[in-house]
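Reminder to self: C-alpha cells first, then the designed residues, so the page reads top to bottom the way the pipeline ran.
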C-alpha cells in the first residue's frame, strides 16, 4: 500500500516510517520540521517538507495514497499557556485540514496517533464506594506534599487500576485537550464520510531518537537530557506517579498492525498502546540513571498544573483486535535507551 505519514521526521514518525517500509509498504513522509521538535531543518531522504495546515500541501501529498498515518502534532506539556494557540493550530487545525483533504481526495482510512493524556487521571477504586473519579488535585494539597487523590465522597485513599478504552475522556492539560479534539474530529469525519479511523492512544513512549533539551518532550527525554548534561534527574512530587513506559519500536509495530486492521475497519475505534508493565517515575529514574552511570535522582516535591497522579492502561483490546503486544521489557528497553542517541 501507499501510505502518507505526517510528522514523518519526528521521534515516533521516523520509527513508524521505517517499520512500514520494512513491512513492504511505500511511504510518503510529510513534516513541517517544527522548531519545538527540530533544531535543524533537515528532512530525511524522500520526505516532503510542508505544513499539514496548508490545504494545497495536503492535496499534493494525498495523491495516490491508500492510508494516512497521522503522527504530526506538538507534544508534551510545553512551557506555559502562551503555547496554547500553537498547540491548537498544529494539532486541531492541522487535523481538520488533513481530514477535509482526505474527504476531497476520497482517502478513507486513517491511523491517528492519540495519547493516554485523553483520560486525565486513571482508574481508581475506593474501598467503600467502588469505582470513583477523583476531582482535580488542589494546589494546597500538592504544596503540602499530599499527592495521592482521595475519594470524592469520603476522602479515603484510593487504589489505582488499569484504564480501558471505554473510560471517559477528561483532559487536564492543553496538550490533552487538543488530543481529545483530534479524536472527536476524526470520529466525526469517519461517521460523515463512511471512513475508518484507528486511534492509537500511546502511553509514555521512549527510545532512540528522542529530542534532547526541549520542554516539548516526554519525561524519558527530559530525564535522559539531564543525564547527558551531567546533572541529576529531577523527579517531581514524590516520584510515586505510576505510568506505562512503552518502547518506540513497539509503538511502530502497533502502527503497522493498525494499518493492516484498517483494511476491514469501519467507523472510529481507539486502542491503548502500552507495555502492560506499569512503573513509578522514581523507578524509571533509578533504572535509567543506573544504566547511564549518572548521579542519583533528586526527588524535588515540585509539581506542575495539569499533571496527573496515576494513569496506566489495559492493553487487552489491542492484543485481541489488532494482534499487537509490546515486546520490549522495561529493564531491557531502559538499558538500551540509556546509551541510545538523542536528536
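Designed residues (343 positions):
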Amino acid at each position: 500500500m501507499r501510505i502518507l505519514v505526517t510528522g514523518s521526521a519526528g521521534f515516533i514518525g521516523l520509527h513508524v516510517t521505517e517499520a512500514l517500509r520494512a513491512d513492504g509498504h511505500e511511504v510518503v513522509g510529510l513534516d513541517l520540521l517544527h522548531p519545538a521538535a527540530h533544531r535543524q531543518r533537515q528532512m530525511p531522504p524522500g520526505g516532503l517538507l510542508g505544513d499539514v495546515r496548508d490545504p494545497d500541501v495536503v492535496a499534493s501529498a494525498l495523491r495516490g495514497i491508500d492510508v494516512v498515518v497521522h503522527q504530526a502534532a506538538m507534544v508534551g506539556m510545553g512551557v506555559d499557556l502562551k503555547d496554547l494557540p500553537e498547540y491548537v493550530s498544529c494539532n486541531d487545525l492541522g487535523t481538520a485540514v488533513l481530514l477535509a483533504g482526505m474527504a476531497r481526495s476520497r482517502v478513507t482510512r486513517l491511523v491517528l496517533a492519540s495519547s493516554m493524556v485523553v483520560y486525565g487521571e486513571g482508574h481508581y477504586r475506593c474501598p467503600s464506594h467502588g469505582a470513583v473519579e477523583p476531582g482535580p488535585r488542589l494546589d494546597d494539597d500538592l504544596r503540602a506534599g499530599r499527592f495521592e487523590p482521595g475519594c470524592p465522597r469520603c476522602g479515603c485513599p484510593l487504589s489505582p487500576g488499569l484504564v480501558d478504552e471505554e473510560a471517559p475522556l477528561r483532559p487536564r492539560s492543553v496538550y490533552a485537550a487538543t488530543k481529545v479534539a483530534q479524536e472527536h474530529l476524526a470520529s466525526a469525519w469517519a461517521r460523515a464520510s463512511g471512513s475508518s479511523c484507528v486511534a492509537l492512544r500511546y502511553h509514555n513512549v521512549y527510545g532512540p531518537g528522542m529530542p534532547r533539551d526541549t520542554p516539548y518532550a516526554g519525561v524519558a527525554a527530559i530525564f535522559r537530557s539531564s543525564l547527558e548534561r551531567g546533572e541529576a534527574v529531577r523527579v517531581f512530587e514524590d516520584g510515586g506517579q505510576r505510568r506505562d513506559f512503552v518502547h518506540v519500536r513497539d509503538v511502530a509495530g502497533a502502527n503497522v498492525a493498525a494499518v493492516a486492521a484498517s483494511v476491514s475497519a469501519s467507523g472510529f475505534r481507539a486502542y491503548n498502546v502500552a507495555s502492560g508493565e506499569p512503573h513509578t517515575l522514581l523507578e524509571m529514574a533509578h533504572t535509567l540513571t543506573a544504566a547511564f552511570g549518572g548521579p542519583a535522582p533528586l526527588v524535588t516535591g515540585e509539581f506542575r498544573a495539569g499533571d496527573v497522579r496515576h494513569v496506566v492502561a489495559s492493553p487487552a483490546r489491542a492484543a485481541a483486535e489488532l494482534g499487537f503486544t509490546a515486546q520490549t521489557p522495561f529493564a531491557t528497553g531502559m538499558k538500551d535507551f540509556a546509551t541510545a542517541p538523542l536528536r
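The first strand starts at residue 2 and ends at 6.
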